[in-house]
Amino acid sequence: MSKSVCHQEDKYVSLLHDLSYEAANMCVQCGYCLPACPTYESMGNEAQSPRGRINLVKMAAEGKIDLQQDLAEPIDLCLGCRACEVACPVNVPYGHIYESAREVIALQQKEEQKKLSAGVKVRDQVLNKLFPHQNRLRFFGNATWLYQKTGVNKVAQKLKLVNKVSEPMGQFEKILPSVESPSKRYKFGDAFPSRGPKKMTIAFFSGCIMDAVMSKINRLTIELLQSVGCEVHIPKGQNCCGALHSHQGSMEEAKNLAKANIKAFESSTADYFINNAGGCGAMLREYDHLFKDDAEWQARAKSFVEKTRDITEVLVELGPLPFKKEWGGIITYQDSCHLRNVQGVSEQPRELLRSVPGAKVVEMEGSDRCCASGGIYNLIHFEESMKILDEKMVNVKATNAQTIVTTNPGCLLQMKLGVDRNGLEHARALHIVEVLAEACDIQ
């Protein structure tokens, strides 16, 4: 092996060592994380467990195994749900170790122009050319509305046109909720007054997928906030939170997106910065960690983090909601991993659901376990994701629920696909905002 090749390899090994070795050494290999890990449970392989992956990261950081040949696949097959952090008795920061490994693997692939699969190339193009651009995302959302409105989607589904491009994308296209008319979209820079006495000023984070194809849920979120006395502002200049980029190792792009959001919100006089997506909220709440080596931006990020809240936290704080309708049937709740494991929010959604008149809330076994959406995991690793999802749906069936509720767009689509795959014709999957708005007769 040439000295130049050795030097390049040493560079990446050294970077991984600097980023993750100290944290990885905190792991005592006790195994408490194993029962909490969905990929270990489904694959039965130590390399697909948190402690197994941490051990591989340590070995790679010591130069004992190859980053691409030995570490890349186990890291790529991790869902990033971070349930292991909650289970860990010594508080190993698995999320930091995981994303450090992602970053170094992606950097080596990019700089050495490693041969990438067509799927990875498409993923990178989408992450870099679509998600950082709100106008492009809205154009995509409006085009999707037209696609559905004209009935072209029905023809495409009948002919399985999307499936021919990508089977996973075809499956998800089939269960995509109806996109609301562009005429009902809020505008960035808009402000909405409270209904009744003003209790609080809110700045709303619209997200990317939520803004593009689930804008109705965003609109209902704004109206629910108004109903409990919030004046709601939609700051200009906000962007994708950067979570998808961070989870794929594109840390510089994630930081650029974070800076744009901090700039957009920091001039706000709002009491809280509110979001309605568990994955986005987790990323927003860790912006200070993202800038741990940049004193100026870390201070600005910390101020941002201190005001960031999930919609359910604020609705509980300012409630009760002005319910007007009785709910029929059983509701079961599926936790968003990042809302529960990273943000520490688990009781508030349940409290809100229990407050809905007429609703019977039945706790699902394993409701705190990942549904295997994992950002874009279910598109990249479809078969692995579906194995975990189908097990999840066994627990859903046991509740006899007519309504499956979650708090994250990826989880919502995953549960909708689970309903479709398992023929649960009596059941529907909804975002918690949709349930609360329907019970308040907000349409």
Descriptive report:
By secondary structure, the protein is an alpha/beta fold. Among the domains are: 3-111, Fumarate Reductase Iron-sulfur Protein, Chain B, domain 2, CATH 1.10.1060; 322-439, Rossmann fold. 57% of the residues lie in helices and 7% in strands. The chain has 25 helices and 9 strands. It has helices at residues 3-24, 38-43, 50-61, 67-76, 83-87, 94-111, 118-129, 134-149, 152-159, 161-165, 167-175, 209-213, 215-227, 243-247, 251-266, 278-284, 287-290, 295-307, 311-318, 337-342, 347-355, 377-380, 382-399, 409-421, 432-439; strands spanning 191-192, 200-204, 230-233, 272-275, 308-310, 330-333, 360-361, 403-406, 428-431. The strands form 2 sheets. A 5-stranded mixed β-sheet has the order 1-3-2-4-5. A 4-stranded parallel β-sheet has the order 7-6-8-9, sandwiched between helices. Helix 4 packs across helix 6 and helix 19 packs across helix 21 (347-355).
* Overall mean confidence score, pLDDT: 94
- Looking at the structure, the CATH topology of one domain is Rossmann fold
Question: Main sheet?
Answer: 5 strands, mixed
Helix and strand composition category: alpha/beta
CATH architecture of one domain: 3-Layer(aba) Sandwich
Distance between the termini: 66 Å
Tally of contiguous helical segments: 25
Report strand order across the widest sheet. 1-3-2-4-5
Shape type: globular
CA radius of gyration is 22 Å
Beta percentage is 5-15%
Quick one: CATH class of one domain?
A: Alpha Beta
Low-confidence stretches: 1-7
InterPro entries: 4Fe4S_Fe-S-bd, 4Fe4S_Fe_S_CS, Cys_rich_dom, Glc_ox_4Fe-4S, Helical_ferredxn
Function: Component of a complex that catalyzes the oxidation of glycolate to glyoxylate.
Protein name: Glycolate oxidase iron-sulfur subunit
Catalytic activity: (R)-lactate + A = pyruvate + AH2; glycolate + A = glyoxylate + AH2
